[in-house]
Write a structure and sequence with these properties.
Structural class: alpha+beta
Helix content: 40-55%
Strand content: 15-25%
Order of helices and strands: HHEEHEHHEEEEEEHEHEHHHHEHHEEH
Number of helices: 14
Length: 400
């Protein structure tokens, strides 16, 4: 069975030809993909790759469905593991500012057994019998329709359209500057290496004779056959000068300004792209760029899977991440010491922070003796001073 037939049941042609849904802002609810675009620029691709790679590290957690938890945690569909799935969703979102996720059903198209990020060339919101559908048109001109509430839609730059994100036209001037800089450097190197000598002839020659003389002079003086390194010219020339190569170099500040424009657009920076960030810089990057994506994806999957009643009973999908992954060993140690003895972390969770395997019995929580549960609403009682004094007095008497 093909991917297409696995994702979409046979739909009535009437759905694909139904009328557009009327929106409040008057825009047709149509999404069109732009082939090529930002992903064809090297710096943009590097930024998108960094965002997608770090986003793919988040871990899906399904609260009340172990079977779906296993699917989302390891293999959301038969063609992708979880890392590839998350990487793909984030890449599509950054390139198109809109990403679509459709559910993967069992053979009867009744039960959701996975998810797939589709890449249509066009998507339209259609209305049929007061019910909304998303009609996808793919590059091979195949069409498929699916109920709107069953489709997950992630957005960036969500402004004019009520369903889809804006395009990347705001970045195009920066892409033109990047291309111009690259071409300028390339042409500067070529021009600097082209003309090395300038000769002035003492007599007028026909164009054909001039071309023949240029080749002869270059062969005699600039080829490998000239082993002594001496260039000679006869009375045909009144003067010969060597040209010092001075290729045009773009100022580093100009290059940096254009690069920063790309970084600002994607919310990344040079340290993220080169994996040279500190733990504090990673925390800022996570909060600004990974956490919002994780939150939006969790909401999209939750709304695809559950009805309002099911959500009110605690059914949901969450996206978690080990934010201490890039912390220093000292910082990790402080966190583990501070949280384990208060019963916030167990030993296996502490071991996970240090990338160690779990151990048997490591899921038990421990708490220091001076922290005890309160009898009322006061939370934890402070350490009992009378008991402490009695224990200290007893210990001193034993020592004597």
């Amino acid at each position: 069975m093909s991917i297409f037939s696995s994702l979409f049941p046979k739909q009535s042609v009437e759905i694909a030809t139904a009328g557009y849904l009327q929106t409040l802002v008057g825009y047709e609810p149509v999404f069109r993909s732009f082939n090529g675009g930002v992903y064809e620029a090297g710096l943009c691709r590097a930024a998108i790759h960094a965002l997608a790679t770090h986003s793919a590290k988040i871990r899906p957690v399904v609260t009340k469905d172990k079977n779906l938890q296993t699917i989302l945690e390891y293999q959301p569909n038969p063609w992708m593991d979880t890392f590839k799935f998350l990487y793909k969703v984030r890449t599509i979102l950054e390139c198109e500012n809109t990403a679509f996720i459709v559910p993967l059903y069992d053979r009867y198209f009744e039960k959701i057994i996975g998810f797939y990020p589709v890449q249509p060339s066009k998507a339209e919101i259609r209305d049929r019998n007061n019910k909304k559908y998303v009609v996808f048109t793919f590059a091979n001109n195949k069409q498929a329709a699916i109920e709107f509430e069953r489709v997950g839609i992630l957005n960036k730059f969500f402004y004019k359209n009520e369903y889809f994100g804006e395009n990347n036209s705001a970045l195009y001037p920066t892409l033109d500057l990047l291309k111009t800089q690259e071409q300028g450097i390339k042409e500067g190197i070529k021009q600097g290496a082209t003309v090395r000598f300038l000769g002035k002839l003492a007599q007028a020659l026909k164009p054909s004779d001039l071309e023949a003389e240029r080749k002869r002079w270059a062969k005699d003086n600039l080829s490998l056959e000239n082993s002594n390194g001496i260039a000679l010219f006869d009375t045909k020339y009144s003067d010969v000068k060597q040209i010092t190569s001075q290729p045009y170099a773009i100022a580093a500040s100009e290059i940096e300004a254009v690069q920063n424009s790309v970084y600002n657009y994607f919310g990344a920076n040079k340290k993220v792209l080169q994996n040279s960030f500190t733990s504090d810089e990673w925390s800022a990057f996570y909060e600004g760029n990974i956490e919002p994506f994780a939150l939006q994806l969790a909401l999209v999957l939750t709304n695809m899977l559950y009805t309002p009643v099911q959500k009110s009973h605690g059914n949901r999908v969450e996206m978690t991440a080990n934010r201490l992954q890039y912390a220093s060993v000292t910082d990790k140690l402080k966190v583990v010491q501070g949280l384990m003895d208060r019963g916030i972390l167990n030993r296996n969770e502490g071991r996970e922070i240090f990338n160690l395997d779990p151990i048997e019995g490591g899921d038990e929580f421990y708490i220091r003796a001076e922290y005890t549960m309160g009898n009322g609403n006061d939370g934890m009682n402070e350490f009992n001073e009378e008991e402490a004094a009695e224990a200290a007095e007893k210990e001193n008497s034993n020592d004597e």
